[in-house]
């Protein structure tokens, strides 16, 4: 397509109309002109949301790393692919050109092969934000192995569950990681996890903090010596468009985490095309997304999307507060960052510290600002616009999910007029719908409902690893013939969308999705606990914080409540990770329940949010008397 790059608002509408009138033709033109295929497709799209089955570019063959690396070598080999900015500002920046990236990915791919990893095998990656993380993803893709990145803030148990679910053969980790002034013993966590992971044959260990760790003979190998010996050439494995590229776990409202499966061709086309348009990346720009590669945002918009465009992508190891709250802006100035993409929780945390931290730095390189992960409140939006963008850089509020693979609802900078708190309009090819409680689509404007998508897009997840039935139930059963997002949204008078938040039991805390069920399971394992319910309540910085209602077993003994609170949070930390710790724990005499035994979270949510003027209908409660008691003792 001639206009790979949307340049103005009328052009957006023109292209949008084309993209929904004839989606196959629209995506075929983009796929054809902007990517390297070893063989073209027989069929652009095959789909059936009732099965559900979705196939894009069926019959096509490619390797995504040829698109992300090799094809840039002829023209741009000496251009920076990755700029690595370490946790400690005193440590030097590492610049990795496309030529160097090619060599390092190939060497890593050869190491994987030497350890017996083959096409289709699953490799778990549990690494901090160091270059080896990006390189290991690409090395897997080079040889057709399926990577499963687990965010390196998850606990040993959470890591083990994910390794077991997809029968990974290998885990890639590091001795430890830096996080601000602290270090974390990653290898120790992996060792604990591997005690219950019999499918793991080998563990590659990158050296980062030079800590003293134990290496298990025959299983654990230092990465660097293996890389040093490996060849810098590695022929790419030729993949089918619909071969899995990676698995990434996301929390659901119930049960264990869901291993979302993304495939190769469609994911590549969609992430590359959205990257180019949503960030208006131009040759020579330096782009920075502050997410961790452990989340989908990092997969799509630190690694694959930018590299498929031959862009320079910045990887930051640290945190916004170290050595002080000016760190982000120091990095922006140092590398003259042109596009900056972060989360509302980070914006709120920085806003709280005041503008002094920004004023020291030159932010004039910034052309586009992005936000993702949760709804952005009006105050944070304006702070970002006024102080970071100086009212000159459009803010792209990008709504999307692990499941969608790429950005779905977003402004196109310099084309779409922005509106605070609104993600605005669907990206090209995306057909949203708002649904009412009875399963009917709500037409017209100034309405709100449950957000669905009516037609497939190239980067949608194809299944849940090992459980297609659950994929169908979770996403394709609430509304007939539609993908259900789990989010609520409203559409304003001109058709702009504002995402209002989850309508299920997923709570987004500091941009991390947490399901209530696994947290409750962890608490309920405490010997003193009878039952528990978790809800979210508004928090200035985190967006939501967690409030736990806990009923204790009646053993006749008196207990030290503060001590119990510590123990409960300790159990959560062990089973899930510190991100799931509760901010408040209230001990209750009972939990409000319906006659069918379901906990009425709606009431608990209102109490935790101190919004008890209208508790709604409590007449169906089995035990209405506990409500007053809970309200009287609210924290
Ligand atoms: C990319 C990512 C997905 C959930 C999603 C929403 C929420 C994400 C926005 C947002 C309002 C946004 N993937 N969400 N972006 N809500 N405005 N711009 O975050 O799988 O980790 O989370 O995040 O509830 O369903 S995710």
Sum up the structure in keywords.
alpha/beta, GMP Synthetase, Chain A, domain 3, 8-stranded mixed β-sheet, 7-stranded mixed β-sheet, 19 helices, 32% helix, binds 5'-O-(acetylsulfamoyl)adenosine
Q: What features would you describe in this structure?
A:
The protein has 635 residues and is an alpha/beta fold. The chain folds into two domains: 9-319 and 398-489, Rossmann fold (3-Layer(aba) Sandwich); 510-632, ANL, C-terminal domain (GMP Synthetase, Chain A, domain 3, 2-Layer Sandwich), CATH 3.30.300. Helices cover 32% and strands 23% of the residues. The strands form eight sheets. An eight-stranded mixed beta sheet has the order 12-11-8-6-7-14-15-23, sandwiched between helices. It is globular. The model has no long low-confidence stretch (mean pLDDT 94). 5'-O-(acetylsulfamoyl)adenosine (7RM) is lined by residues 250, 295-297, 372-375, 397-402, 423, 485-487, 499, 502, 508, 513.
Topology:
Blueprint: H1 9-21, H2 23-34, E1 43-48, E2 53-58, E3 61-62, H3 64-76, E4 80-85, E5 94-97, H4 98-114, E6 122-125, H5 131-143, E7 146-149, H6 156-165, E8 170-174, E9 177-179, E10 182-184, H7 186-194, E11 202-206, E12 220-222, H8 223-229, E13 239-240, E14 244-250, E15 258-263, H9 265-278, E16 286-289, H10 296-308, E17 312-316, H11 327-335, E18 339-342, H12 344-352, H13 356-359, E19 368-371, H14 378-388, E20 395-397, E21 432-435, E22 447-453, E23 463-464, H15 468-476, E24 483-491, E25 497-502, E26 506-509, E27 512-515, H16 516-524, E28 529-539, E29 543-552, H17 561-575, E30 584-588, H18 601-608, H19 625-632
Bound molecules: 5'-O-(acetylsulfamoyl)adenosine.
5'-O-(acetylsulfamoyl)adenosine (7RM) binds next to helix 10, strand 24 and strand 25.
């Amino acid at each position: 397509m001639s206009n790979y790059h949307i340049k103005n608002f009328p052009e957006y509408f023109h292209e949008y109309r084309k993209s929904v009138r004839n989606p196959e033709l629209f995506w075929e033109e983009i796929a054809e002109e902007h990517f390297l295929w070893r063989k073209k497709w027989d069929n652009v799209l095959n789909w059936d949301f009732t099965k559900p089955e979705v196939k894009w570019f069926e019959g096509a063959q490619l390797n995504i790393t040829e698109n992300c690396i090799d094809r840039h070598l002829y023209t741009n080999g000496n251009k920076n692919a990755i700029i690595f900015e370490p946790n400690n500002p005193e440590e030097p920046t590492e610049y990795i050109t496309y030529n160097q990236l090619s060599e390092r990915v190939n060497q890593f791919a050869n190491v994987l092969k030497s350890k017996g990893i083959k096409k289709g095998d699953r490799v778990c990656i549990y690494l901090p934000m160091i270059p080896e993380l990006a390189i290991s993803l690409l090395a897997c893709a080079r040889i057709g192995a399926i990577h499963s990145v687990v965010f390196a803030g998850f606990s040993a148990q959470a890591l083990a569950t994910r390794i077991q679910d997809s029968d990974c053969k290998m885990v890639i980790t590091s001795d430890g990681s830096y996080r601000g002034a602290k270090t974390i013993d990653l290898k120790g966590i992996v060792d604990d996890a591997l005690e219950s992971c019999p499918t793991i044959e080998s563990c590659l260990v990158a050296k980062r903090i030079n800590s003293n760790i134990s290496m298990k003979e025959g299983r654990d190998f230092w990465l660097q010596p293996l890389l040093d010996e490996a060849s810098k050439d590695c022929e790419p494995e030729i993949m089918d468009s619909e071969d899995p590229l990676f698995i990434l776990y996301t929390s659901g409202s119930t049960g264990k985490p869901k291993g979302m499966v993304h495939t190769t061709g469609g994911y590549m086309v969609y992430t590359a095309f959205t990257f180019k348009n949503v960030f208006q990346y131009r040759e020579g720009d330096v782009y920075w997304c502050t997410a961790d590669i452990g989340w989908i945002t990092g997969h799509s918009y630190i690694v694959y999307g930018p590299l498929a465009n031959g862009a320079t992508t910045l990887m930051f190891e640290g945190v916004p507060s170290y050595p002080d709250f000016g760190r982000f802006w120091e990095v922006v100035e140092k590398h003259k960052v042109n596009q900056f993409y972060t989360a509302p929780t980070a914006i709120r945390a920085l806003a709280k510290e005041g503008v002094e931290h920004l004023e020291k730095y030159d932010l004039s390189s910034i052309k586009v600002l992005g936000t993702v992960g949760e709804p952005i409140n009006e105050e944070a939006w304006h702070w970002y616009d006024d102080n970071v963008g100086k009212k000159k850089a459009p803010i792209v509020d990008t709504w999307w999910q692990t499941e969608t693979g790429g950005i779905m609802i977003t402004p196109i900078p310099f084309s779409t007029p922005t509106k605070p708190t609104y993600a605005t309009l669907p990206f090209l090819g995306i057909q949203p719908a708002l649904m009412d409680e009875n399963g009917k689509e709500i037409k017209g404007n100034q309405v709100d409902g449950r957000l669905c998508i009516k037609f497939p897009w190239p980067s949608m997840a194809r299944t849940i690893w090992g459980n297609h039935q659950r994929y169908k139930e979770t996403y394709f059963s609430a509304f007939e013939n539609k993908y259900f997002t789990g989010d609520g949204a409203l559409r304003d008078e001109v058709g702009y969308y504002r995402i209002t938040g989850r309508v299920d039991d997923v709570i987004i805390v500091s941009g991390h999705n947490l399901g209530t069920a696994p947290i409750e399971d962890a608490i309920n394992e405490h010997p003193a606990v009878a039952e528990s319910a978790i809800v979210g309540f508004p928090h200035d910085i985190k967006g939501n914080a967690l409030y736990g209602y806990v009923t204790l077993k009646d053993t006749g003994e008196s207990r030290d409540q503060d001590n119990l609170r510590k123990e409960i949070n300790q159990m959560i930390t062990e089973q899930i990770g510190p991100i799931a710790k509760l901010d408040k724990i209230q001990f209750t005499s009972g939990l409000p329940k319906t006659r069918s035994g379901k906990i009425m979270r709606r009431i608990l949510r209102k109490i935790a949010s101190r919004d008890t003027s209208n508790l709604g209908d409590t007449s169906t409660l089995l035990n209405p008397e506990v409500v007053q008691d809970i309200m009287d003792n609210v924290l």
